[in-house]
Amino acid sequence: MPTMPTMTTMTTTSPHATVAILSIGQMGAGIASLLLAHNFRVTTNVSTRSAATQSRAASAGITLLSSDTELVATADYILSIVPPKDSRATAQRIVDALAQVDRGDKAALWYLDLNAGSPSSARGLSSLFARDEEEGRVVFVDGGIIGGPPTRSPSSSSSAAAENETWAYRPGIPLSGPHSLSSAPIAGKHLASVLNTRHLNSEIGTASGLKACFAALTKGFTALALQSFTTAGEMGVLAELGEYMDVYNPGARERAERGVVGCKGKAYRWVEEMRLIGETFAMQGGFVGKANVFREIAGVYQGLAEMVEEEGGEGLESAEGVVGRLGTSLREGRGDEKERVVKEDVAL
């Protein structure tokens, strides 16, 4: 393992609590900055991360740890912020680490699963912690993150006083489960406020379901824009489509273009999320076997993710660039499939 860089100290006062974040991606780093500015100690396990990632985390003031057992032994809270496909493995890592650690007389460890999921997947994660919860070692909270990473106001610096006014934007974090974060004994009320949380009800799965419903309207719209723009481009009428949108659906083109450009590096994360949205709509909404829309939308993001992985990100700075490259990629691989669909239509 590479040598860990020295952490930059951001405050000399005693921190409110220790919050571990898994992992420090774009969202995790943004939330870490928010917590550090409000005098929380933030830790993460970097044993499998690159030296560059470790350096960035340390320079931001995050305490770098070398194992999950060390993380579990010292944390008051754990925020799981990973791709949906990794949420269960991450939870299992913490369960395994807890089995190896004696936390002594420390209060129960609060585990907040903030990953995109479904009510069913949230309940499955909760079940992993059932024994630890029964023994009073863990409190599991279902959650989700709505919006982008926190950002500071232009006038504030990294060492600014920790006031809400210094933050231009904070995502919303709905939570659910038998225990409200604000009731946690170690600065729980303050942490709940800083993270901009809202406790919905006592049911595990409600927060994940709300997040799924919200994401369906945002990421679902972007998937439709990808298909619409790509198809219009293949027919040579992408510019005309944009013109009609400006006149008859003002604002939609700009929103769609931002989504198309912004999703290219996230598409691989969204494949599983779309599947889980479909699961939510089927099981909670009652659409079992009636409208597998998001199973197909998962395929849209899968195709984009594969294109980006195979060809790289060059030339994808604009919506035209993204859908142009996607159209070419689809055209090159769709010959046999298109012929099959045409034959089926004729048979009907």
TrEMBL record:
<feature type="domain" description="Phosphogluconate dehydrogenase NAD-binding putative C-terminal">
    <location>
        <begin position="232"/>
        <end position="302"/>
    </location>
</feature>
<feature type="compositionally biased region" description="Basic and acidic residues">
    <location>
        <begin position="331"/>
        <end position="348"/>
    </location>
</feature>
<dbReference type="InterPro" id="IPR028939">
    <property type="entry name" value="P5C_Rdtase_cat_N"/>
</dbReference>
<protein>
    <recommendedName>
        <fullName>6-phosphogluconate dehydrogenase C-terminal domain-like protein</fullName>
    </recommendedName>
</protein>
<feature type="domain" description="Pyrroline-5-carboxylate reductase catalytic N-terminal">
    <location>
        <begin position="18"/>
        <end position="98"/>
    </location>
</feature>
<dbReference type="InterPro" id="IPR013328">
    <property type="entry name" value="6PGD_dom2"/>
</dbReference>
<dbReference type="InterPro" id="IPR036291">
    <property type="entry name" value="NAD(P)-bd_dom_sf"/>
</dbReference>
<dbReference type="InterPro" id="IPR015814">
    <property type="entry name" value="Pgluconate_DH_NAD-bd_C"/>
</dbReference>
<feature type="region of interest" description="Disordered">
    <location>
        <begin position="329"/>
        <end position="348"/>
    </location>
</feature>
<dbReference type="Pfam" id="PF09130">
    <property type="entry name" value="DUF1932"/>
</dbReference>
<dbReference type="InterPro" id="IPR051265">
    <property type="entry name" value="HIBADH-related_NP60_sf"/>
</dbReference>
<comment type="similarity">
    <text>Belongs to the HIBADH-related family. NP60 subfamily.</text>
</comment>
<dbReference type="InterPro" id="IPR008927">
    <property type="entry name" value="6-PGluconate_DH-like_C_sf"/>
</dbReference>
<dbReference type="Pfam" id="PF03807">
    <property type="entry name" value="F420_oxidored"/>
</dbReference>
